[in-house]
Amino acid sequence: MTIGPEAERRPAEPSTITPWPSPPDPGDLSRRLTQRRTELRLSRQQVAARAGLSLRYMEYLENYPGRPTGATLRQLAAALQTTPSALLGAGLEEPPGYRPLARPHTLERITAAECRQLIALGGIGRIGFPTVSGVMILPVNYAMVANTIVVRTSSGGVIGAHADADVSFEVDHIDEALEQAWSVLVQGPAHRVIQHTEVAHMERAAAAVLPWPQGEHDLFVRIIPRHLTGRRIVLR
């Protein structure tokens, strides 16, 4: 199934859109478009309007490996506040922060209230705690529940074994295309969730916490933020 350039700007109202004749098969560009749109909290209609495209074509690009023209790709990049090369995956092999910034930037502190806002959506963070062999730092999926950080893990794993202690938790975001970045560090006590009522609440409120590694994840660990500090890289 293909859609030609002539359909890119053809108007299409949501009420008139019919299902696609084949099941979705997103490509790399599709995933980057969807991810960037989600980061900006924009709807498909909003991005389509900003880029001057039809909603139908926007839906197609997010569900199938399309090949938009150079002009269309530039309009999409402008609508999503990024670059065409970033949408095409340029520079993904390089480590974050490897390329020098083209414009002068400065470092500013983030208030505790804004730190909470930045990490409120959940995602991927890193938990750090002391062990007999030294400090260990591990990446984990997390969710925010009642202003606390919730991690799902295995009761027999290393995180579960060191859960009832003070820990550090860090969340970062880097956008090299926009030359922006922020980092939030949380410090506070952690505890294993063992009470039946609290476990039931975690299963409902933190159901979206699905660790990437397969296996049993029968333990919820809650981190109570005692100290929140953050920093942001911004244009001077």
**Number of folding domains?**
2
Show unreliable segments: 10-16
- Beta strand %: 25-35%
What is the helical fraction, as a range of percent?
Answer: 25-40%
Q: Nearest-angstrom radius of gyration?
A: 21 Å
Superfamily at the CATH H level of the largest domain? Electron Transport, Fmn-binding Protein, Chain A
Number of helices: 8
Cα separation of the termini: 47 Å
- CATH domain class name of the largest domain: Mainly Beta
Helix/strand/pairing class, anyone? alpha+beta
The strand line-up of the biggest sheet is 2-3-4-7-6-5
Please name the CATH architecture of the largest domain. Roll
SSE string, helices as H and strands as E: HHHHHEHEEEHEEHEE
CATH domain fold name of the largest domain: Pnp Oxidase, Chain A
What's the shape? globular
Compute the number of strand runs.
8
Largest sheet: 6 strands, antiparallel, barrel
What's the average pLDDT? Answer: 83
Characterise this structure.
The protein is α+β, with helices and mostly antiparallel strands. The chain folds into two domains: 5-15 and 22-87, 434 Repressor (Amino-terminal Domain) (Orthogonal Bundle), CATH 1.10.260; 105-235, Pnp Oxidase, Chain A. Helix content is 28%, strand content 30%. The chain has a six-stranded antiparallel β-barrel. The longest helix has 12 residues, at 28-39. The N and C termini lie far apart (47 Å). Residues 10-16 have low confidence and may be disordered.
